[in-house]
Design a protein that fits this description.
The chain is an alpha/beta fold and 366 residues long. The protein has 8 helices and 12 strands. The strands form 2 sheets. It has a 9-stranded mixed β-sheet. The protein has a 3-stranded mixed β-sheet with strand order 1-3-2, covered by helices on one side. Strand 4 and strand 5 form a beta hairpin. The radius of gyration is 55 Å and the shape is elongated.
C-alpha cells in the first residue's frame, strides 16, 4: 500500500511540475508577443517576380498601392494594427499582378512578394480596341509606360464572358503559343487574322501569300505540311508564284496562283527575241514590196504593143515566138522606169517624125 501511495505522489508532482513549466512558457510567450505587437516595422522589401523580362509594374507602384495611397504611417503603426491582408487585396486588384503575398518576419521587416501577369498575345478588336491575353486567358490592359512586343492577332470580335468568347480565347492562345515555341514560325508569321466564322488566316513575313489555316486543331501538323511546301516548292519556283495557301485539309496544301504571273526574265533571251522580231518584220515588208513590183510589171507587159526580145534567144522562122519577161528584166525595167519614161517619149516622137512621109498635093489639070 505504501508503494502505491509513493507512485501516486510522484505522478502528481510530475503533472504539477509540467503544468507550472508550461504555464510559465505560455506567459513568457504572451508577454513577448505583447512586446512585439507594440513595436513597428523596421524596413520594407518589395520582391517582383519576372521583373527583368516584364516591366508592367515597378516597386514604387507597389509601395504606393499598399502603403502610401492608404495613408499608413509605418513608423508609428504597431505590428498589431498593421493590416497585412488588406495590403494583399489592394495589390492583387492591380490588372498587371497575378499574385501577392505580404508578411512580417521576426526581424520586423515587411516583405511584399508580387508576381506579374505574363502576356501571351496582343489582340486588336474590330472597334480598334487593343489589349493583351495572359496565360490564364484573362484580359490585360496596355501599360502607359511600357510596351511588350509579342504576337499580334487582328480582327478579333468583342470578347465577353460567355462560352463562345472563352472558346475563342483558348484557340487564340493555343495557336499563338505553338507558333512561338518554334523559332522558324515565330520569325515567319507576322500576324494572325480572325475570320467571321472563328477561323484563322496567317500573314507571313517572307512571301505575299495569305495562308488559310482554319481552326486551332492539328496546329503542328498544318505547320509541318506548310514547311514541307516551302522547302520543296516555293524554294524552286519562287515565293511570289502563289497568292493563297490552304492548309485546312488534312495531309495536303492547296495553292492558288496569283494572276497574272510573270516568271523570271532572262535579259539575253529577251534581247534576241526583240532582234528576231525586227528581222521577221523587215523580211515580210520586202516580200510585200517585191509582189507589188511584179504585179505592176505584169500589167505593163499586157498593155504594151510589142515585147522586147531577150538577148541570145533563137528566133524561129515563120511565126514569132512571144517570150515572157524574166525576173531580171522586170527588176531592171522597174528600176529604170521612173528615170527613162521621159526619154522614151522623146525618142518615140523623133522616130515617128523620121519615118512619116510628107504628103504632096498634085497640081490640078488645066
Amino acid at each position: 500500500m505504501k508503494k502505491k501511495r509513493k507512485i501516486l505522489i510522484r505522478k502528481i508532482l510530475q503533472v504539477a511540475f509540467t503544468i507550472i513549466v508550461s504555464t510559465g512558457c505560455i506567459m513568457a510567450i504572451v508577454s513577448a508577443s505583447r512586446i512585439d505587437d507594440n513595436q513597428t516595422v523596421k524596413n520594407v522589401v518589395v520582391h517582383i517576380k519576372n521583373d527583368k523580362k516584364y516591366h508592367f509594374i515597378e516597386q514604387k507602384e507597389i509601395l504606393n498601392l499598399a502603403i502610401n495611397n492608404r495613408n499608413i504611417d509605418l513608423a508609428h503603426t504597431p505590428l498589431s494594427k498593421l493590416d497585412v491582408h488588406g495590403m494583399e487585396q489592394v495589390i492583387m486588384a492591380d490588372p498587371w499582378v497575378s499574385d501577392a503575398q505580404v508578411f512580417v518576419d521576426n526581424a520586423h521587416v515587411l516583405h511584399m512578394y508580387v508576381t506579374q501577369r505574363i502576356p501571351v498575345v496582343r489582340l486588336f478588336q474590330k472597334n480598334s480596341l487593343s489589349y493583351y491575353l495572359d496565360t490564364t486567358l484573362s484580359i490585360m490592359p496596355l501599360s502607359a509606360s511600357y510596351i511588350y512586343y509579342t504576337s499580334v492577332v487582328t480582327n478579333v470580335p468583342d470578347l465577353k464572358n460567355d462560352s463562345v468568347s472563352w472558346a475563342l480565347r483558348k484557340q487564340i492562345v493555343s495557336l499563338v503559343r505553338t507558333i512561338q515555341a518554334d523559332s522558324f514560325w515565330s520569325a515567319q508569321i507576322s500576324q494572325v487574322i480572325v475570320d467571321s466564322d472563328a477561323t484563322f488566316e496567317l500573314l507571313p513575313v517572307l512571301g505575299s501569300q495569305t495562308i488559310l489555316f482554319g481552326d486551332a486543331t492539328r496546329v503542328k501538323e498544318k505547320l509541318n505540311n506548310l514547311f514541307i511546301f516551302y522547302k520543296n516548292v516555293l524554294n524552286r519556283i519562287g515565293w511570289d508564284k502563289y497568292e493563297t495557301l490552304d492548309v485546312r485539309f488534312k495531309g495536303q496544301v492547296v495553292a492558288s496562283p496569283s494572276l497574272p504571273y510573270v516568271g523570271p526574265v532572262d535579259k539575253a533571251i529577251v534581247n534576241m527575241n526583240w532582234i528576231n522580231s525586227i528581222v521577221e518584220t523587215e523580211a515580210k515588208n520586202d516580200s510585200k514590196d517585191s509582189l507589188h513590183v511584179a504585179d505592176a510589171k505584169n500589167k505593163q507587159t499586157t498593155t504594151a504593143a510589142t515585147l522586147v526580145k531577150p538577148k541570145n534567144t533563137p528566133v524561129k522562122t515563120g511565126k514569132t515566138a512571144l517570150l515572157k519577161p524574166t525576173k531580171k528584166q522586170l527588176i531592171s525595167s522597174s528600176a529604170e522606169k521612173s528615170g527613162k519614161n521621159v526619154d522614151k517619149k522623146k525618142k518615140n516622137d523623133k522616130h515617128d517624125k523620121k519615118h512619116t512621109k510628107p504628103k504632096y498635093i498634085l497640081p490640078e489639070k488645066k
